[in-house]
Amino acid sequence: NAGVTQTPKFQVLKTGQSMTLQCAQDMNHNSMYWYRQDPGMGLRLIYYSASEGTTDKGEVPNGYNVSRLNKREFSLRLESAAPSQTSVYFCASSEGISALHSGNTIYFGEGSWLTVV
Amino acid sequence: GDSVTQMEGPVTLSEEAFLTINCTYTATGYPSLFWYVQYPGEGLQLLLKATKADDKGSNKGFEATYRKETTSFHLEKGSVQVSDSAVYFCALRTGSNYQLIWGAGTKLIIKP
Known about the structure:
The complex is a heterodimer. By secondary structure, chain A is an all-beta fold. Chain A has no helices and 11 strands. Chain A has strands spanning 4-7, 10-13, 19-25, 31-37, 44-49, 56-57, 64-68, 74-78, 87-94, 106-108, 112-116. In chain A, the strands form 2 sheets. In chain A, strands 2, 4, 5, 6, 9, 10 and 11 form a 7-stranded mixed sheet that branches. A 4-stranded antiparallel sheet of chain A has the order 1-3-8-7, with no helix packed on it. In chain A, a hairpin with a 6-residue loop joins strand 5 and strand 6. Chain B is mainly beta. In chain B, the strands form 3 sheets. In chain B, strands 2, 5, 6, 10, 11 and 12 form a 6-stranded mixed sheet that branches. In chain B, strand 5 (32-38) and strand 6 (44-50) form a beta hairpin. Classes of the chains: A mainly beta, B mainly beta.
C-alpha cells in the first residue's frame, strides 16, 4: 500500500541550480497536486493536474514547472532555485477534482525537505 | 474568498487533559471540512472529515462537529496522550472550488 510516493526526501541546492521532484501514486487517481508548506502558513497549492494530460497553475506557481507524465506520475521542476523556495513540498492525489466530489479525500506523500542556499 | 482560521499555537497540555483546537471558516456554498495531522518528520494524514452540517467526524478518539450556524469545526479529544503531539491542520473544500483551503496549523505539545 504505497499510496503517494515522492522523491527525494531531502535535498540541498545552491542558488541557481535546477532539480525535479518526482511523485507517483498507485491509487488510480485522476487528480494530482503539488503543495508547499512554510512555517506559520497553511499549505499553498503550486500546480495541479485535474486529469492526465492537463496541468494548471495554483496559488503560487512562479518559479516552478510541472509535468503530468502519465496517470501515475506528476513531477515538479525548479529551473533556477532561489532561497525563497526553501520549503517542504508535498505531492498529493485525489480521485477527482470536479464539483460533484467536494467530499473527496486527498492523499499526501511524506514530503520533500528542500533547502536552497 | 474562502478562508480557514485556526487558534494559534503551540498548545501545551499535560497527558490525559481535554483538548480543543478551534477552527472557524468562511465559505460560499456548502464546504466539506477536514482535519489533517502531521506528526514530526512525516507527511499529512487525514484525521477526520465531515461533509454536511451537523455531521460529526471521528477517528482515534478525536471528534469534530460541523456547525453551520457558528461556521466552526472544532477538534476535541477527551484525554490526550504524548503520542498526539503533532501539528493539526483544519481545511475546507467546496464544490465550487476544487482546492483545499488550509488553516495555518496548530502545534500541539503533550507533556507526560
